[in-house]
Structures are given as C-alpha cells and as structure tokens.
Amino acid sequence: MNLLTFRTEEDLNRAGAGLIASLLQTNPRAVLGLATGSTPIGIYEELVKLYQGGSVSFARARSYNLDEYVGLSGSHPASYRCFMNTHLFDQVDIDPANTHVPNGLAVDLEQECAYYDAMIEDEGIDLQLLGLGHNGHIGFNEPDDSLIAGTHAATLQHRTREANARFFDSIRDVPKQAITMGVAPIMKARQVMLVIRGESKAEIAKQALTGPITTKCPASLLQLHPNLVVLMDEAAGAWAK
Length: 241
Ligand code: F6R
Hints:
Elements: E1 2-6, H1 9-26, E2 31-34, H2 41-52, E3 62-65, E4 67-69, H3 80-87, E5 99-100, H4 109-123, E6 127-130, E7 152-155, H5 158-164, E8 177-180, H6 183-188, E9 191-196, H7 202-210, E10 228-233, H8 234-237
Parallel strand pairs: 1-10, 2-3, 2-6, 3-5, 6-9, 9-10
Antiparallel strand pairs: 4-8, 7-8
The structure holds fructose -6-phosphate.
C-alpha cells in the first residue's frame, strides 16, 4: 500500500489527476473505474484542465462507474450519470458510448447487474478510483456481516442516505437502493486509488487502512489489494505521519 498525504487540496487533486493522465498517456485504451460524490470532483477538474491543455485524451478510454441510484433516470440532476456528464464526460473527448453507469431504471435489476459485471469482466478495470464512506463503505458496499462479490442492488444505510441528502431537496427524496459494483470487480482492478478528504474521515480511514480486515468496514478489504495507492489530505491522514 502506498499512503500519500498532501498539504493542499490542489496538490492532492493534481496527484490524483496525474495518476489517471499518465495511465492514459501510456495506455490510451485504459479502462477507468470511476466514482462520484464530493471526493473526486477536484480530481475531475484537474483532468479537464489537463485535457484542455492538450496533455491527455480520453478519446479511446472506456469507463465504468461504481454505482447509480435505483429509480433515478440519467437525466435526474442527482443521478450519478448526470454527475459524471457534468463533472467529466461532457468536458473531455470521451466517447459517450464508452462510458458506463449502471441503469437505475432497469426493470430487471438482477439482469442489469449481471450485464454490468459481464462487461467489466470482459474489459478488466485498469484503475479504480474510490472515495470512502463515513461508515467504511466503498461503492455502496455497506458494512454488514457479509458482503456480496458481484454487482448488486444494495439497500443504503440511513447514515449514507443522510450524507447524500445534500444532493436532494430532502432526505425523503434520497433513494433507498442503489446498484453498486460489488467488492470483486473493485478488488480485481489492476490498480486502486482511494481518495480520502477531511477530518471527519480520519478515524474511518485509519480503521480501514490499519485495522482488522472485516466486512464491518468494507474498505478494509483494500489492505489485501496488491496495488493500492491512498491519497489523503492532511486532515484525513494526520494519523499516518
Ligand atoms: C460514489 C461512491 C461512494 C462515495 C462515498 C464518499 O460513487 O461510490 O462510495 O465515494 O460515499 O462520498 P463523498 O465523496 O461524497 O464523501
């Protein structure tokens, strides 16, 4: 595990974007596993700048997002498809047909999850970007007695819905379920980049990265990943010094 802490948000964003850009420079057809939420926004902003400056192209890249809310269409402003279009896809030269976000409106959720897994299995993710939930979740793999390996429809914990209520008019509007990649596709990614920001995540970051490996803290499984890089700001990573 490579643990890096950064003095400023700008340094962290540049390092995260730099990792993705150098992958695309060496392998323009790279498959990116992408995340939403507050954590990756600054990294996407830096990537857009690199694209505008001509130092990176997404023209042949492909992407798979971690998750999507069940019941939201891609045009809903709080959907993860909409988030990705706004923060990255619409601002770079990626072919929209090569971007994948689970279909939250799928009539048959099981079939949608199997289809998503089959596509990922076929392509193989080169770099998976992850944020960390306050309860230790990755994607929407919530702490539990056991975890599900493949992509599945997950029931969101109240704390997760509370944390995400800021993107909706009220917590009542936050869907109760989401389709999420399971831990298997995440662990199979060739490289995982976990990004953690803010003091409120320091304790769970320490627990996930130095505590016991347990399904009660899904991110702790990342300790087993052979190629994990963790980017933290000083507030989240003070314990690592
Ligand atoms: C987002 C995702 C979630 C978030 C996590 C942290 O696609 O899968 O696991 O990464 O909830 O969210 P933020 O970054 O908003 O603190």
